[in-house]
């Protein structure tokens, strides 16, 4: 899995990088077919009293791209909300793949059974 973490108006410290990596372990525990991950962290100064911390992630899995965004007063809270939402999307994607692959085919009667029934 390729992991890219970038920041806008924010320096990505080793502590933030490690926190994101630890949170992503939960995602890879549920679904290990992750190809590429790009995490975008930003601080928007709306007013001086209210600073909005944003976290976004683009996750590439086989055949699909998942995008999740969250915002909170604290960057770590935004990352936590982001990972919770991403976890739900990954589990939904995984269940859709499993349901699709294990759909039972209708059984077609053999020509001998059809002739015997008639």
From TrEMBL:
Ranges in a coiled coil: none
One Pfam family linked to the record: Ribosomal_S30AE
InterPro entries the UniProt entry points to: HPF/YfiA_ribosome-assoc, RHF-like, RHF/RaiA
Source species, domain of life: Bacteria
Keywords assigned: Translation regulation
PANTHER family (alphabetical): 30S RIBOSOMAL PROTEIN
Subunit structure: Associates exclusively with 100S ribosomes, which are dimers of 70S ribosomes.
Name of protein: Ribosome hibernation promoting factor
Encoding gene (name): raiA
